[in-house]
Amino acid sequence: MISFPEEEDYRELAAQRLQAYKQYKKSPAPDRGICEMCGSAFTQKLGEEAPEGSIQCFSYIKSDPTLPRAACYLCAFDLSLVRKDVTGSGVSVTLWITSKVELELEDRVLDMIKRAEASFLNPRYLASMVSPRKDLGLPLPEGLKLPLSKKALEPESTTGEEAYFFRTPFGSFLRLRRFRKKDFSIKNQHALYAPLYDLLNMLGFNSCITNDLEFRYGLFGENRISSIQSYHDAISVLLLAKTFPGEKRNPHCIAANIIGAQPSVAIAKATEPSRKTKKEGLLLTQEQLAFFMKALMKANRPVVKGGLITMGELLHEAAFFARNIPVYCVEPEDRKEFWGNLTKHKATKAILAPLNEMMRGRDLDVAKSKFLSQLSVKVGKEEREGLDDFVKGSSEILEKYFELRQSSFSDFLKAKNALMNAIFAFTRYKDLEKVLNA
C-alpha cells in the first residue's frame, strides 16, 4: 500500500474489472478469474486434488457447474492437504471451527459432533432425545434436545469413522464423513448437517460445514443465521426423515421439502403411520413425536404466503379444537363410541363442515351457521361455562380462514388440510397439547 500510485483512474479500473468479470462468466478460464474460496486475483486451475467432474455446483461467479473453479495457490495447497487421503471418486464433508477464545470445550464438542453425525446419517435408528446440557455437558439452553441412535448413546461410543482432525492458527479442522460422488447431494447434506451447524454456532463458535471441493463459508454456502428457531426447524426435518423406508434416497432433503411445501403431509406422516411404516418399525417414539410437534411450533414456519397463518398458530388452533370438539360437538351418549372408534372424520367433522362451505364459495355467515349446527344439543351444566368461549374462539378462526379463502384458494386448501391433520393428531394423542405450553 505504501508504494501504491497516488493518482489512479479508479473508474477505469472498475470498468476493466467489470469487463473481465463478464468475459469470465461467458468463458471461464481458471487462470484469469478470481479464487472462489478467498477472492485472490492470482489463480490457477485445480489439479489432481479436484479432478474433472468433481465440481458439484455453479456459483455467483461461475455459471457452468461442469467447469473447474479458479483457485489461488494457497487455497489449492489447502485443498491438497484436505483431500490427501480422498480418491478422485470421493467427496468428504469438512468442518472448520474458529473461535475468539480458546476451545476449552474441545473434547466435549468433538464427542458431540461424532455422536450427532453418526446418528443423523441414518435417521431410521434415532432412538432417544438427549439434553446437550445435562447429558453432554455443553452450555446450551435447558429445553434443547438432540436425537441420537442407541449406539451413539453408549457412554464410550466409538460410533462413526475416526475424524480427520488438526488445528491451525485460524481454528480447528475436521473431516467428518466421506461419500461416493454419485451418492453425494448438496441439498441432502445441507438438511442433514443443519442441526449440528446450529448447535456449534449457538455455542459461540464460527462454523463452516461444506464439502471439500466447494464453499468455504456457512452451511454448504448458506450464511445461515443460527438460533433456537432454526435449530428446531432442522430437528423437525431430521425426525420426519426417520419415517421414510431405508431404500429411500436423500430422505433429509425430501423431509425438508415436505415440511416446507406440504405441512399436512408432514403432520400426517409423523402421527398417522402407514402399514409399511409400522411394519418396518419406522415409528416416532412418544418422546420424539412430542418433540416433533414442539419443533414445528418453535420453528413457526409460515404455512401460507404472507404469514397470515403460521405453523405455531395452526397447532394452537388445532389443540383448541381437539380439546373442545369432543365436549361440545358430540352428544353424551355418543362419546363412548366416539373415543372407542376414533376416526379423522369424527375428530374434525365439526370444523370441516364450515370450511367446506367456504371452499364451495359460500359466505362467512353460511359457514358460521354450519358450524353452529354441529354443536351438541345436550350440554351439561358444568360444561356450559366454556361453550361461549369455544363458539367465540371458533368464530375468530373461521373469519381468518374466510379471509384466506378470499385471497388464495390454494393457500386456503393447504392450511385447511394441515389443520385437519393436526386436529386429529391432538385428539388422538391427548398429551401432545402439553408440549405447546412447555
Entry keywords:
438 residues; alpha+beta; 3 domains
Structural notes for this entry:
With 438 residues, the protein is of the alpha+beta class. It folds into three domains: 21-84, no CATH class; 87-301, no CATH class; 305-436, no CATH class. The chain contains 18 helices and eight strands. The strands form three sheets. It has a four-stranded antiparallel β-sheet. Strands 1-2 form a two-stranded antiparallel ribbon. Strand 6 and strand 7 form a beta hairpin. Helix 6 crosses helix 10 and helix 13 runs antiparallel to helix 17. The radius of gyration is 27 Å and the shape is elongated. The mean pLDDT is 82.
Topology readout:
Blueprint: H1 10-26, E1 43-45, E2 70-72, H2 73-82, E3 90-98, H3 106-121, E4 126-130, E5 146-149, H4 150-153, E6 164-168, E7 171-180, H5 186-202, E8 206-211, H6 228-241, H7 251-261, H8 263-271, H9 275-279, H10 286-299, H11 311-328, H12 335-340, H13 344-359, H14 364-372, H15 381-384, H16 387-407, H17 409-428, H18 433-436
Antiparallel strand pairs: 1-2, 3-7, 3-8, 4-5, 6-7
Q: Describe the biggest sheet? A: 4 strands, antiparallel
Shape: elongated
As a whole number of angstroms, the C-alpha radius of gyration is: 27 Å
Termini separation? 58 Å
Q: From N to C, what is the helix and strand string?
A: HEEHEHEEHEEHEHHHHHHHHHHHHH
Decide which structural class fits the backbone.
alpha+beta
